[in-house]
Give the backbone structure.
Amino acid sequence: MKPAGKIEMTQPKTRPATGKLGVLLPGMGAVGTTFMAGSILARKGLGQPIGSLTQMGTLRLGKRTDQRSPLIRDFVPLADMNDLVFGGWDLFHDNAYEAAVTADVLSTEHLNAVKDELSAIKPMESVFFPEFVKRLRGENVKPSQDKMELAEAVREDIRRFKKENGLDRCVAVWCGSTEVYREPTEAHESLSKFEEALRRSDPAISPSQVYAYACLREEVSYANGAPHLTTGDSRAMLELSREMHTPVSGKDFKTGQTLMKTILAPGLRSRALGIRGWFSTNILGNRDGEVLDDPESFKSKEVSKLGVLETILQPELHPELYGDLYHQVRINYYPPRGDQKEGWDNIDIFGWLGYPMQIKIDFLCRDSILAAPLVLDLALFMDLAHRSGLSGIQEWLSFYYKAPITPEGLYPENNLFVQLGKLKNTLRWMQGEELITHLGREYYD
Ligand SMILES: NC(=O)c1ccc[n+]([C@@H]2O[C@H](COP(=O)([O-])OP(=O)(O)OC[C@H]3O[C@@H](n4cnc5c(N)ncnc54)[C@H](O)[C@@H]3O)[C@@H](O)[C@H]2O)c1
């Protein structure tokens, strides 16, 4: 019998990253086009993929005295940036260049340098049900059919995209708008119930779920960059992921304010400093901001943003430090700012004998500049996971998400540094290297 707590650690066998990898984006808006443009610019040597762990990050192997810290991309067999082919679906007819101009994130100089490549990326017709994104109207939408037929049409898109571009395999990263908040229903209970629900066009099935279903059926790994219900909280989709040996991960890219929160909160907790209140507010004026101005879409975002402190601080273990924490998050749509969001945090903390102190953060960030490298990393790591035979939830990619999906009954790990340790140890495990525990006795014994 296995000793309690001991887990199987058989190293997976990873297929090499041969041939081309298609990166399919449901949603080619600000994040999607900034990712595509930036990747092509980096390929041409006209910009650096800053913020991307797969391209710029290193990891330590062996002892600190061994001096082995290769680049992650030299250590694990990731697809090469030059082998990526971009595609996607959108509600609007704009090609990726036109959409990038509308999104107004990158400079004219940058966009002109990749105009030809971006103009050639034309969105496929989308799957859209307006009740799930109330602030947008679809123009480039598949004709109305039952939801199973729509899923079949997306599968056909994927097969055609693969064939036309001579691809070896594909991954999908949802970069579409945030859909309204929904809880799982009976339709999400099992794969057979979900397929039945698709055939009768059950109103509980959202566009993102149709894409995810189609992708998994085509063995296309699926990463969810938005906070809505798609894969992790749907037993049906997890069943399909396992059945098709195709991984899923999510949800909601961890970029601006929540990134800061998951950097700072673990530090305060590590020093057993108390927190009485954390008030976060944002102004942003891009299309994402417009969609989130709808209370039902905002609810999806709010739930995802609020969850992080709870799991980092664990008030049930430290009621005297975090039991009375008042946490609030606001997003205000303010068009003049466009993609250049500003996020303020006021944090009321307390120290020795309960004396109060305050921390203020004013983060003048750029939403899509922070999100684009995450799309690249997720595409490459999800492909790596797939080639390594991993399926179901990829918790080691929690590092990238505000609301990491986990199996039922397991709370998510939101501490950024624990998430990074988990990610790097997973890469070491995949390559048969020793895991790093930071115990460090070997330097002294
Ligand atoms: N930028 C960030 O820092 C960040 C962080 C976390 C999450 N996100 C999420 O990433 C997503 C993309 O953000 P963005 O700033 O690019 O938004 P955006 O509005 O610029 O782009 C979203 C695009 O998705 C398209 N779309 C909506 N529904 C679709 C469907 N059913 N099929 C195909 N296309 C569809 C829209 O037409 C739009 O072009 C949003 O859900 C956002 O909440 C962004």
Summary: The first helix runs from residue 30 to 43. The chain has two domains: 20-253+369-430, 257-364. The longest strand covers residues 274-284.
